[in-house]
Structures are given as C-alpha cells and as structure tokens.
Amino acid sequence: MTREDGSGAIGIGAMHCLLPEDRVAVTDLPEFAQLGHEELQFVEKCGVRTVGVFTETEQAALAAQACRELLAEHPVDPDILLMVGPRSPDVLLGSDVCRVQAENKMDSAFAFSVDGLGCTGSSAAWALARDLLVADPGRESVMITHTSRPTGADRIRFPVTVVGDGAYAMTMVRGGRPVLRGHRQETDGSFNDLFRVDYKQTPWYEWREECLDPSRYSFELATHSQFRLSRLVDRVLAEAGVGKDAVATTLMQNVVASAFGFYTSLLELPIHDVCLAQLTEYGHLGAMDVVLNLDRLLATGELSEGDLVLVLNNSPVAAWAVTLWEV
Per residue in 185-240, pLDDT tens? Predict the structure, then answer.
C-alpha cells in the first residue's frame, strides 16, 4: 500500500493485487504432455515453476472484485475508471470496463479502456492517468484496473513465457506516493502482427497463440528492445536531473528469468529480486507484472522516503515504457 504526502504531486493513492490461492505446477498443466523437445527445454529454463489459477474465468468480474476490495480499504470516488485491456475481452460490442463501473457503482466516473499495448499497457495507463489529472485541476483521482488470464486454454506461450492469473486495481491521486517523477514510452507498429490468435475461425477452447516469426521475436525484436529501453532510461533520468547512481532499484515485467540478468548487465541497473520471486510463483501476469512487483517491493519496507525506483516495461506489439517513481 501507499501513502499521501499532501504536496499536490501526482502519485499512487493505493494498490491492491488479487491473486489466486491455488497454484498449479507448470509440469501439471494439461498442455505440458503435448510439448515437443524445444518447448520442453524452454519451460525448463524460463524460470516459472507454478502459476496461479482462478476458478472465475470472466476477466471483468475479476477486475471488478479487485476494485471492490481496494475501495473497501481506501474509499474514493474516482473521476475516471481506466481499464488496461485484457488479452481477449469477455464480450464483443459490449463494454468490460463499463461492467466494472456498474458493479462498483462508480456512477460519476468516465470509464474507458487502453488497449493494443500488451504488457506495456499498465505503464501507459498510469502515465495517462497522471496527464489527465494535470490537464484538469477539477479531477482528483483515476482508478486503473486490469485482469491477466490466458487467451485460450493453453498457458505455455512458447517462445515467450508461461501465463498465470491475476487482477489489480490502483489509484493515481494528487498528493499520492510514490510520486510519478518521469515517464517516456514508444511503439513500433512494424511488429503489430508478430503474434496473433485466429479467434474468428475456431472455438475459444481451440484458440492458440501463434508467433508468425520466432526468429524475428528472438533476434530483431530483442535488439530493438535493447536499444529502445537503453535510450528511454537515459532520457527519463536526464529529464529528472539524476544519474543511474541515484536509482535505488529497478523493476521490470516478469517474462523469463534470463531477462533479469540480461537487462541488469545491459543497463547497469540491478533488477530487484522481487521480480524473479513473482515470476517463479505466479508466472507472467501480462500488464499486471509491474504493478505486482512495485506493490511487493514497497511492502518489503526496505526503501526510504525519497528513494527512486525505475520501472521498465515492454511488449512484442511492440511497445516500450520507462517510469521513474519517487517513494
């Protein structure tokens, strides 16, 4: 959880992460027995040992529950409800975010979704929330929510990660802490069709995520990510007037274990162990990863007021984001 400082700076009012009580070993997932040699090697090395699994499968219902539980502890009447779009919506033509609004009686909030950015959606959402509060002094708070569930029946996403279940709600408010000190983001539309699910021609239980060019994912996109994140880190820190030595710790999304060491070496910014701990236990939670990691980091109590935390995020859409928080 977070606190308010009364300064009027825009930061986090509260965070709440909803996680399943039940864990399933990756080796016990139904699709595990059908994996080929290359896929088995990937699972062995990816770092995910278990994933959380909800009995509830409707993503809007889980997002609504996360919002409800946050509001019970931290009552607020948000001006805006912002949903980070899930991998696949519960309904077409209808509105998942408006269902969340209705179930939580947020009648005065304007509800809409941010979509098409994959894991980077949460980073874009908190930056957009900050901008919306800056743009209108009459606004006091923005509620952000998201649910992570697999697109179809399979959770093993070769060659990317293993997907777990989770949902979160958080608020961005005036006077909140951590304060959002800096943020930059970029997209590259040339990767828009690198991954796809043929949902129109097959029933949902046969949906399979396809990587249209695994070598492009592993090499070309990886090279882009190295360059983009390095540049964004330098820009965010320069705009904040600080160097890498001023950063207390760094977080990123949880995809595979090897990524943490790679980006630690590339950026000369150690990735905090809380990221690996969440990956190992819960798997990849999409856009929820960075929120869960930040929530868990703050709960350790090891940071002091004024410490700076850098949060990296990227997705194969492709999108990249870097955020600097001041505790």
Answer: 999 998 988 888 888 888 877 888 888 888 888 888 888 899 999 999 999 999 99
Among 131, 155, 176, where does a domain finish? Answer: 176
Q: Where are the beta strands (DSSP E) in the chain?
A: 3-4, 10-18, 23-25, 50-52, 80-84, 110-114, 141-148, 156-157, 161-162, 166-174, 176-177, 179-187, 195-197, 209-211, 247-251, 308-315, 319-326
Q: Verify that 191 and 111 share a domain, yes or no.
A: no
- Please state whether the peptide bond connecting residue 318 to the residue before it is cis, i.e. omega within 30 degrees of 0: yes
State whether 97 and 197 are in the same domain.
Answer: no
Indicate whether 272 and 208 sit together in one domain. yes
Whichever domain contains 291, its CATH number is 3.40.47.10
DSSP state of 140: -
Cis peptide bond N-terminal to 86, omega within 30: no
Report how far residue 274's alpha carbon sits from residue 4's, in angstroms, rounded to the nearest whole number.
24
Same domain, 268 and 131: no
Closest by CA to 167, choosing from 322, 324, 20, is 20
Structural domain of 73: 3-176
User: Does 251 share its domain with 288?
Assistant: yes
User: 36 and 138 in contact (C-beta within 8 Å)?
Assistant: no
> Are residues 118 and 67 part of one domain?
yes
**What 3-state class would DSSP assign to 221?**
helix
Q: Are 17 and 280 in contact (CB under 8 A)?
A: no
Shared domain check, 186 and 169: no
pTM value surpassing 0.90: yes
pLDDT digits (tens, 9 = 90+) for 266-317: 999 999 999 999 999 999 999 999 999 999 999 999 999 999 999 999 998 8
Whether residues 295 and 213 share a domain: the answer is yes
Q: Domain count of the chain?
A: 2
CA 158, CA 214: separation in Å to the nearest integer? 9
Name which of 129, 103, 110, 105 is nearest 13 in CA terms.
Answer: 129
